[in-house]
Queue: 2 jobs
Job 1
Amino acid sequence: MSRQHFDALDFKILEMLSHNARKPFLEIARETNVSGAAIHQRIQKLTASGIIKGFETIIDPAAVGYETCAYIGFILNDSTKFDEVVNRLKEIPEVVDCHFTTGTYDIFAKIFARNNAHLLEIIHKKLRTELGRTETLISFKEEFKRPIPILAENMD
């Protein structure tokens, strides 16, 4: 996607929504001294242009029974099989992120499992591939996660 041109109001809206996607439009309007209708229009424009990809609810995985977080790197024997592996990963609901990468791994995926035994079951029954090999890293704890910084100087 080509880089979009933003003004100060766009940056402020993006910054506010990146920290709280449920922030009411009227509250954004009050904080930016702009009408609610103008804020609504701007957010529609940002969404239609693909800048805002959507709004999400972030659920604590452990609170709903997913105690183990792991990252799995795939080293493919044949890089033309990327789409095949990605399509197989899409079929596994516990896989929540998937990236095509440089370096050691061709594909890097994030997975949540109920516990280590469930992770092992997923690896053995769903992730085994004749297309290459995998390496698994278990995350003990996520220290922090934050939205990307919304800075005017990054958006020239």
Job 2
Amino acid sequence: MIFNVHGKTLQQQIASVSKVVNAKNALSILDNFLLEVKGNTLYITGSDQETVMTAKMEITNQDADGVIAINAKRLMEVVKEVSNFPLTFNINNSNGSVDLQFPGGHFEFMGIDAAEYPQNFEIDPLSVEMEIPADVIQSGLDYTLFAISTETIRPMMTGVYWDFHEDDITFVGSDTHKLVRYTNRNYKPNRETSFILPGKPAGILRSLLGKDTNMVHVRKDEKSAIFTFGDFRLACRFVKGNYPNYNRVIPNDNPNEITIDRQALLAGMRRVSLFASKASSLVKMTLNPNEVVLQSQDLDYSTKADERIGCSYEGTPMSIGFNAGYMLEVLNNLQGDSIIVKLSDPGRPGLFMPFEQKENEDVVMLQMPMQVIE
């Protein structure tokens, strides 16, 4: 099997597919890319069994169809060194040897019988099919992915929840300390369905949706989904289980409302957090009509810090504690110059949202409070 390919394009495609390949795999065959030639198209596949990524690209001067598995690390290393050249692959189907030729030289190494490579899992023929605008998915993942949990003790929280309604789609991410709900009404699914997309494929999907992608074709059944866009096909299994009722967690009655400059609060929180207790990362916010006072202390080292930030506050004076690390994440992932913080009392969650929501979009970030000992 012989074919020609442009080195730079090949490097870009295998770099994308490599995102799904684990550093250590239970099955050694998953240390490899699967390369399959069909006509004038090369398909490059990587898998960790739960997620399968395939990229395609054009090739020239191919003499036959064929398939082979090649060690992912080896292929990435050699292609990186010759990415500026046109490349010719000469693959011996009988013994699996690979001769990669470039102007002035060549590499020789061994491939692996592709028959050992796991087959792609299939979607139920009665699956649901949807065309979702790429920018809707991009925004949903941009807002929520940072908030998901990395603790496998609660698997449902390790993914982004996609909740489809007749007139909108909602993305939710939470680790029980913070929660983000992003709703987009520009896209109308005209159906009621939902699933939990694991963090790894969600991150891959987010990284590959570029400006040139307009729509993402989604096929899903009860257990898995296939996302097809541009030159990519991403298949993955869902997180099993029922996602908690996220709307029930978000308080509705929040009479105390702050309007504040996001960057000012972010910078102040970053500075004050330097002197917060390493064990708790507690920062106390004291709310007054024209200012927010941030305070932290570490009794073990006899250190403390405070800072005043101007704001507009409508409500009764109060103090509430937040974890500085979670607060910095929330502030970094909100957009806009000014934000609104809505509070009920020191024992209930705080709601953070942009001062100006985009048309037909609704972003709410929730953070659980911490006990403040006066």
